[in-house]
Amino acid sequence: MPLDIVIGAQWGDEGKGRAVDLLSERSQIVARYNGGDNAGHTVTVGPKIYKLHLIPTGLIHPDVVGVIGCGMVLNPQTLVEEMDMLRRGGIKINPERLWISDAVQLITPAHRLLDLAQDAALGNGKLGTTGRGIGPAYTDRASRRGLRAGDILNLEHFAARLRAHLEQVNLTLTESLKQPGIDIEFVLKEYMDYAVQLRPYIRRIGPPLQEALDNGQTVLAEGAQGTLLDLDQGTYPYVTSSCTTAAGVFSGLGLGVQPVRAVVGVVKAFQTRVGAGPFPTELQGDLAAFLRGTGANPWDEFGTTTGRPRRVGWLDLVLLNYAREVNGLNELFLTKLDVLSGMKEVLVCVAYQRNGDTLTSLDFSGDARLMEGCMPVYKTLPGWQEELRGCTRWQELPKAAQNYVKFIEEHTGLPVKTVSVGPERDALLYRD
Q1: Do 360 and 227 share a structural domain?
Q2: Residue range(s) defining the domain that contains residue 137
């Protein structure tokens, strides 16, 4: 029963789509288990660039089944648009290839309006939400008043529940937040159209996933966001509203706890994050601009979902080791090593200084305040001038680039089995 898990080991945007696309070649089922369309997983196949927010990345492979798990929140509009986009790209989408959990929570336009209004009301303390309605949808889930995909199976029941939801949110928007309300009749018509389109795809997913595992098929769990955005283990309160760590796989897919073959941590060769919150190794000025890029290329450091420029900084091994511990990582997939080409030297954070103490690890407990006042302690490594794109074997990398990867291995105790040196699907180097 081979269950593999792909986890973002930083603040998201690590390049998980690349890892999932690769590992999908040995998988029969690829399943998303958390988050919503705040995720953005990109795969480049020849001249085509697929940017997926909800549909599992593995569905690009013709023989893979994609699953939208019960731990997610689902925007029907985004899903229908993605399905149409993939069909135009020649990808087969049907109920046999795409399963939607009947327990997944639905996002409505009311959730999105609430998300923006509530974050704006925080003023200087706002969290920097993507505005996709993720938090309000998870709030409704926790308060047991959310709409679920299974409600769609009875259209009359769904219409009544949706109307009640929109009326309740309208009261909050207009009376508490002093914002314009939503056009209920317009949303009702729109969402009933989505309901008709999505009904054939909705099913209970736990039993067929377990059956697949029992029959020896490989299930790949595709995580969204990153470890440091986990609701419990991340830099709280600057986190997302779901479980982004490996622990969330079982509840997010309706599976019982069972052995896992591999937990792959995807890590960028430097550090990035979107939104507010602590960032000990953050850079400004020319170095930041160099790492971020101009935005002219799809792989530059601008949000796939929001388009916002990402904050950038040096790789932080204190936080990477934290991600190793909370996820039980047993290997790393390193992305964007090519971006560091052209630097005379490359810095890596190996410890923090705080209140006169040197910390090589954090008793973190998911509290952003514990990172306040942490100053990075760097190890300076030689850089390299050579362009890495075009390298097809590990041995072709300049020694300085190889040593950078080996340094990460030495300080995490984890093998870096795959290294990306460009955005293309085949721009990957494999290590034994």
Answers
A1: yes
A2: 105-201
